[in-house]
Design a protein that fits this description.
The N and C termini lie far apart (59 Å). The chain has five helices and four strands. It has 163 residues and is of the alpha/beta class. Strands 1, 2, 3 and 4 form a four-stranded mixed sheet that branches.
Amino acid sequence: EEKEADDNDNNNAKENNFTPRILAFVFPQFHEDPINNYLWGKGFTDWDNLKKAPDKNRLGYNFPRPTELGYYDLTYTEPRRLQGELANQYGIDGFMYHHYWFYDESEPIRGGPTLATPLIKMLEDGHPNVPFALNWVAIKWTNTWSGNVGPDFVFKEAGVLQK
């Protein structure tokens, strides 16, 4: 009887959507983007930083390197499709997209969604075919590897996010 009660509780939780979900964060800096071109140079992606990183961090742990997908570009369908397959294979319920939105109407290259091409492509073609959510990043965008913001990266209006 006790096992039957546990099974009923589990079924009720699933039916009522109370079961915790496992979401993997998707960091969108692994493709070329106009704002990265402007701030860090033509063709820059965070893969450049990973490629320059030593094999081990200061604590002696290995820096992770790409595996199945290699140095992917999420503006292309195939790596996003494969990410969805890997998520399903390893029990990941969905993705949480790290989402930037800068507001500066006077600067088209800096205003609106930034690094959003993979998200836009996902909405267009449906890959990866997993549930998703957005994590709105409303913080100052700094060059954490040197502690500086890129050259001339100044928002002109008061109240602009990421100021």
